[in-house]
Design brief:
The chain has helices spanning 3-6, 20-33, 51-58, 64-67, 124-127, 134-146, 166-180, 203-216, 259-262, 301-319, 365-383; strands at 12-16, 38-43, 47-48, 69-70, 79-83, 86-90, 95-98, 101-104, 107-110, 115-117, 129-130, 151-156, 188-192, 218-221, 226-230, 235-238, 243-245, 248-252, 254-256, 286-288, 331-339, 342-349, 357-364. By secondary structure, it is an alpha/beta fold. The protein folds into 2 domains: 3-114 and 257-329, 3-Layer(bba) Sandwich (FAD/NAD(P)-binding domain), CATH 3.50.50.60; 117-255, 3-Layer(bba) Sandwich (FAD/NAD(P)-binding domain). Strands 5-2-1-9-20 form a 5-stranded parallel β-sheet, covered by helices on one side. Strands 11-18-12-13-14 form a 5-stranded parallel β-sheet. It is globular, with a radius of gyration of 21 Å. The structure holds flavin-adenine dinucleotide.
Amino acid sequence: MSAAHTSGARPRIVVLGAGFGGLEVTALLAERLGEQVDVTLVDRREGFTFGFSKLDVMFGRASPAHVLHPYRDIVKPGVRVVRDEVRAIDPVRRRVTIDSGELDADILVLALGANLHPEETPGLLAGGYEFYTEPGAYAAGDAIAAFGGGRVVVGVTSTPFKCPPAPSETVLLTHDYLVSRGIRDRSSISLVMPLPSPVPPSPDASRALLTAFAERGIEWRPGCLVQALDPDRRVAVCADGTQIPYDLFLGVPTHRAPAVVLESGLTVDGWVPVDPLTLQTRFPGVYAVGDVTSVGTPKAGVFAERQAMVVAERIIASVQHAVPSAEYDGQGTCYVEFGAEQVARVDVTFRSGQSPSGMFESPSAELAADKAEFGASRARRWFGREWSPLPPNA
Ligand SMILES: Cc1cc2nc3c(=O)[nH]c(=O)nc-3n(C[C@H](O)[C@H](O)[C@H](O)COP(=O)(O)OP(=O)(O)OC[C@H]3O[C@@H](n4cnc5c(N)ncnc54)[C@H](O)[C@@H]3O)c2cc1C
């Protein structure tokens, strides 16, 4: 217990990163503790965008402005939002250096996500598009809009990567888009992945996706990690040397923990190890949640959010002088776009040392409505705004 806890001063909680994890920790602390704690939430960006919204913009279903949730909308008791760059993290002293100064924490929560490095795949930026960053997805959207037909290849350049179903969603949405433009019959679509199935933890989801690909004439090419693009010859080169010709390449780029985290001494093998039940790092008073960790669940917002709930519960208990008992259960619910305004649902649980188990619910319009409510409820809780992922008449 730090001096701030014992002296009666308000505990200082510093949350780094205002994505799925950081926003959920902050919302719960504000809701349950209000002014009893002093929460500082730091992010370099202007606002938050759901991962799935990138696909909505890419396929012309929403505008970039519609899907941006400005951090200035966060008005919560006990919470200060600071837009700044995190430059250094000292996990021993729980001191964070940002451009505008230093922040000392009694409890530090690391939720800085994964950074994306398309420049590390030779030829990717010169000869194709990555669709995992906002600018990348929006530029890919412009390219798709200007596409006159040909060979579309969606490929993965490195593992692990966020939201493992996203490449499968992308080929299904590409199919719909090309049909709507009347150029599907002049085009081919291939999904190239290093994995043996589209969503390995859920065989049922994988089967349903493979059926959907077959019904739409989408080629499935497992076992290929795209190592490079040759922009002059317009071929994607797999790690085993196989060459795949393309006219439009949409790629999942290399993921890495942010440099400031790699430099902090918190990582092992590139990611932050945590206790799989408590999400504590090996440094007292320092938690980590979400994509930045190696906790063993996929890198997805729903897992980051559930980890954040556990961390918030543990912080609340310690502030209230109770013994923290909340533990992470590895559960997550993912919505998967199947195109044709249908969404499926995968419930999956990851427990360390066990194979993942889960349930799959087939695509339907009802689940598309559930997914919209999933986004709307987070916008309400985190930002206090009424919002729907797809604007009317999208
Ligand atoms: C195309 C696509 C579709 C997706 N679809 C889904 C989906 O349907 N469901 C789902 O659950 N997940 C989905 N995801 C994944 C999801 O977006 C991420 O897994 C999730 O956002 C991770 O949450 P996080 O809190 O760990 O990190 P993030 O949400 O990435 O937040 C990290 C934050 O840290 C900030 N940051 C990083 N470094 C610094 C620094 N040095 N200084 C200041 N700020 C910094 C960043 O600006 C960012 O806001 C999708 C992702 C993509 C790309």
